[in-house]
Write a structure and sequence with these properties.
This protein is mainly β. The chain has a domain at 129-228 and 265-271: Immunoglobulin-like. It has helices at 8-16, 221-233, and strands at 34-41, 48-53, 70-74, 79-81, 83-84, 91-93, 105-112, 115-122, 129-136, 148-156, 164-171, 174-175, 184-187, 195-205, 211-219, 257-271. The protein is globular.
Length: 273
């Protein structure tokens, strides 16, 4: 890995030498694009698909919701029609017993205002979580606040390269965050076909006696690439030598943005000691 070393004078030159005004075309007149966020898993539950649209860069308003759309998910054998709940929210849910099957492709179809958008993803197999454990993280907390715990897992990675995983943790039934910044995800290049023993996949705030449930999701490379690209353009930016932002990949047709994914899930629950 190359290391770039700059003197204080060189840094000052970099920051002050260029004074030319830059005009950015933010395409204020572009038509709004559909933005999709949703998953289907093999767990029986009401799965959510969230629909919004892009808005002006300068707009000081909430992201517009897409209401009144016709939304379905199908694997070619079974089809679920999603219902917007509550009305006007842009959140569409499958029936509460909907569950996918490993090995099948799932296609989301959205119809709204004369337009049609689709997205397809494969539900890949996921290895079982053999056990989970928790130990105090080396993090100082203000007096009275719950301490942070490392979340460790034991599992056996599936043989063959090309598997990708993400993990979510729930403390007493509540996820610590729906934000991608709280997502732990990895491909299998370091663990291909081998045992994974005691690896830290998350950190959560909890107290002794709390119940922590850990979910292990098998996701496709396409989903992995989307998560990675979003974080590279948001949470992992801010340095002087960051590369320029790039468009986040999407599997939504018809010029739509976002991602619809399929994931199989295994979980394990433990008690904080």
């Amino acid at each position: 890995m190359r290391h770039l070393l700059l003197s204080a004078a060189a840094i000052t030159l970099l920051l002050t030498a260029c004074t030319e005004r830059i005009e950015m075309d933010l395409d204020e007149l572009a038509a709004p694009k559909l933005v999709v966020e949703g998953w289907i898993t093999d767990q029986p539950m009401a799965h959510r698909v969230r629909l919004t649209t892009t808005r002006s860069y300068y707009a000081n308003e909430a992201t517009p919701r897409v209401s009144g759309a016709q939304v379905t998910i199908t694997d070619g054998v079974q089809t679920w029609t999603l219902t917007e709940q509550p009305a006007g929210s842009g959140n569409y849910f499958t029936p509460g017993d909907a569950a996918g099957l490993v090995g099948r492709h799932y296609t989301l179809t959205i119809q709204h205002n004369g337009g049609t958008w689709t997205a397809t993803d494969l539900m890949r197999p996921v290895p079982a979580l053999d056990s989970v454990a928790f130990d105090l993280a080396d993090t100082e907390m203000p007096e009275g606040e719950a301490p942070w715990y490392n979340v460790r897992i034991w599992t056996n990675e599936l043989p063959g390269l090309g598997d990708h995983y993400r993990w979510k943790s729930f403390v007493n039934g509540v996820t610590r965050s729906d934000s991608l910044r709280a997502t732990s995800f990895v491909d299998d290049r370091l663990y291909n076909g081998s045992a994974v023993a005691g690896v830290v996949v998350d950190q959560v705030q909890a107290r002794p006696g709390d119940t922590i449930r850990v979910e292990q999701h098998a996701i496709t490379k396409e989903a992995y690439d989307v998560i990675l690209a979003i974080l590279q353009n948001t949470e992992w930016r801010g340095g002087l030598f960051d590369p320029p932002p790039a468009n986040v990949p999407s599997n939504i047709s018809n010029g739509g943005l976002g991602f619809f994914g399929a994931a199989s899930v295994k979980d394990r629950t433990g008690i904080v000691p």
